[in-house]
Amino acid sequence: MIWNPNKECMSRDEMRQLQGKRLHKLVNYVYHNVPFYRNKMQAMDVSPEDIQSIDDIVKLPFTTKQDLRDNYPYGLQAAPPSEIVRVHASSGTTGNPTIVGYTRKDLAVWSEVMARALTAYGITRDDTFSVSYGYGLFTGGLGAHYGVENLGATVIPTSTGNTEKHIRLIRDLKISGIACTPSYALYLAETLDKMGLTKDDIGLRIGAFGAEPWTENMRKEIEERLGLRGFNLYGLSEIMGPGVSYECEEQNGSHINEDHFYPEIINPETLEQLPLGQQGELVFTTLTKEGMPLLRYRTKDLCSLIPGECACGRTSVRMGRIMGRSDDMLIIRGINVFPSQVESVILEMAEFEPQYMLVVDRVNNLDTLQVQVEVRKDFFSDDIGRMLALKKRLCDKLKSVLSISADVKLMEPNSIERSQGKTKRVIDKRNI
Ligand code: ADP
Ligand code: ZN
Fold first, then answer.
1. Residue environment code for 23-61, b if the CB has 16+ CB neighbours within 10 A, otherwise e
2. Residue 209's closest CA among 233, 244, 242?
3. C-alpha distances in Å from residue 45, one per residue of 23, 42, 60, 132, 142
4. pLDDT tens, residue by residue, 370-382
5. Which backbone phi and psi does 242 adopt, to 5 degrees?
6. How many other C-beta atoms lie within 10 A of the C-beta of residue 350?
7. What is the distance of C-alpha 22 from the center of its chain?
8. pTM for the model
């Protein structure tokens, strides 16, 4: 099923025209309502009239998270305060939160793009759907919530916390779909175990997972443990919240709602646009937003755009999995390391739980990386020889994937702190 075939299956030509028209209107709007953008454009000698088609976007200035912080709280808001009906803030994973105001129309667009996503996952009006992203300033909870209502399924606003009660509700209310972070999905699986229940005692069918990077191996793990099919859901509060892009049944990249959010991939050093297919920093322009529209917002998320048609019938461009944020990228002895690489290796080995932590330090002017990872109960033993052999196997695999050697610390089952929201996987003591 496709929620809005008119938009999701538009011909490429029509889409580019629509984007061009919307960009033209947007640039006029911010030029006249946001001094920050007017100043930037004047400094670059660009006027709204220079922006006639979507290809003209390269003439426009970028926006960074720092710009949002410098203009805290409402400096980049374009709509008058009387038009703003809701405010959210980014989670502040990487510093002070940024504030985002939404108009009534922004909220309608958000519910629309979320309904597209849920429909692509296979959710219908007959489903009962639990939203287990945190409700509050974080966009996850309310964003997914109104999407489910717009679609017409039954929403159960469970949020996070009280997981045992949640599991009883999943069973008793026959909840078939859930939106949460991949970390919370694992936590749910563990709690299920603890309660002496199995995936067959609950009837979860579909999971919408996002808000943090996760790997293909993590998908397999969660699907196996919860007995559902897991789909990617991507978004960020500066642009809207969850629903910026979503996977379809083909699960080969996530379709971007590009009639509302125009994507580019740039080289983060030269800021030049990269051709389709190349990996770089993802940049979005909010084509229809009224509250806080952004031109060429640098997400710091690293991925590539996938060219070509998708077998599902949608024509929108897809983005590959997020490799990581440029903020998360660790430079260890000059080598780039992403937590997702470590996750992939760990999940390929049956001996480990998908629970790990990277600890980076500097000893005698040399960077060190320690990977702490939980050994599964069935594999954990007092036999030192066996544990040393396991440790060595992991060290060797990490070395071949990361190109640097890491120290491994095997941890007892359940010793790494669980997260119900976004998980922190890195402790960088070099910055402390
Ligand atoms: P913060 O930047 O404070 O974490 P947000 O709550 O807006 O604020 O989070 C948005 C970020 O979360 C994205 O920029 C991205 O890094 C990450 N994210 C969201 N969804 C996904 C996903 N499906 N896969 C990987 N990363 C994701
Ligand atoms: Zn598709």
1. bbebbebbbebbebbeebbeeeebebeebeebeebeebe
2. 233
3. 18, 5, 10, 47, 40
4. 999 999 999 999 9
5. -60, 145
6. 8
7. 25
8. 0.94
Q: Measure the CA dihedral 235/65/266/324, to 10°.
A: -50
Q: How far is the CA of 187 from the centre of ligand 1 (A)?
A: 19
Instruction: Find the 211 Cα to ligand 1 centroid distance in Å.
Output: 4
- 178 SS3 class: strand
pLDDT in tens, 88-107: 998 666 667 799 999 999 99
Strand, helix or coil for residue 431: helix
| 334, β-bridge pairs | none
Distance (Å, whole) CA 282 – CA 300: 7
C-alpha to C-alpha distance for 215 and 311, rounded to whole angstroms: 22
Q: Which atom of ligand 1 is nearest to the CA of 299?
A: 14
Tokens of 396: 């060797």
For residue 329 the two structure tokens come to 């990228």
- Predicted confidence at residue 125, as pLDDT, reads 98
- Give 32 Cα–ligand 1 centroid separation in angstroms: 30
